Amino acid sequence: MPEKKKMGRPTDNPKKTQFSVRFDQETLNILDEYCQDKNISRPEGIRKAVRKLKKKK
Known about the structure:
Blueprint: H1 25-38, H2 42-55
C-alpha cells in the first residue's frame, strides 16, 4: 500500500525540529508583548530572536 501524503499547507521551509524550553515570567512577558505588537505567534517570535543572534556576530 503506498504511503499517504500528509495533509496541510505546502511550505518551502519545513520545520522538522521541535523542542521545549522553559521561560521565567519576565522573559515570557517580553516575548508575548513583542509577538502581540508584531502580530506573530510565539514560535515565530522565537525564530526571529534566534536569527538576530547571527546578525550580531
